[in-house]
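Title: Request for sanity check on DM13 domain-containing protein prediction

Description:
We are preparing a figure and want to confirm that the structure record we downloaded matches what your pipeline produces today. Could someone re-run it with the sequence below and paste the raw structure tokens into this thread? We only need the token string, no images.
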Amino acid sequence: MISILKNILAIALAGFISFAAVSANAGSVASGTFVGASDHITTGGVEVIKNDDGSHTVVLGEDFSLDGAPDPRVGFGKDGKYDTATGMGLLKSLNGQQSFVVPAGVDPADYNEIYIWCLKFSVPLGVAAIN
């Protein structure tokens, strides 16, 4: 019985070590906090995550909030200019955590801002400077 328990423990530990080694490649590469724009209230944190496969995901924090607007989208920008080619889709909710896949070919390291962008009126609703 003790031998069986030792084997089970050894297998579980090996699996944990393998998982930890793979997950060490993934993690936060940038983060910031939204500030409202164009007379909109946008608050909360945002994080850019590098996934194990090398792709990236943008995650709006649980504290994310937007006061509302038509057609709010998520994308990257640099030095005050939104890049429409980085669009990650329609905001899923006005509040709370949500994630967006960064399009293939878009390198988050090329940008220093994440936008909540109103596509209908071509104005920023919120901007987060990312480090």
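Thanks, this matches our download. The helical segments are 2-23.
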